[in-house]
Write a structure and sequence with these properties.
By secondary structure, this protein is mainly α. The protein has a domain at about 45-70. About 65% of the residues lie in helices and about 0% in strands. The protein is built from two helices and no strands. It has helices at about 10-30, 45-70. Helix 1 (about 10-30) packs antiparallel against helix 2 (about 45-70). The longest helix has 28 residues, at about 45-70. It is elongated, with a radius of gyration of 19 Å.
């Protein structure tokens, strides 16, 4: 039976790529969506700082969340061979 080893860097890069995508989505939502709901448009520089702060905090929490799930056996079914 082959044992799979996953490097911790994989979790880090997975978190970074997810956060790049999420940051882009958050930027567009905060920039272009408020006027559709009757709110004033947010300044793009303000949006940039909000997105950066949001992403840094969530990147850190996502990494540790991923590591906790990786250490957990919950939901893993081991087949007997």
């Amino acid at each position: 039976m082959n044992k799979v080893t996953i490097n911790k860097r994989r979790h880090f890069f997975k978190a970074v790529t997810w956060n790049l995508l999420a940051m882009t989505i958050t930027f567009f939502i905060l920039t272009y969506l408020p006027p559709y709901f009757g709110f004033e448009p947010l300044d793009k520089s303000s949006v940039g700082w909000l997105v950066a702060l949001d992403r840094v905090a969530k990147l850190i929490f996502y990494y540790f969340h991923e590591r906790i799930w990786f250490a957990s056996n919950w939901g893993i079914i081991k087949l007997k061979v």
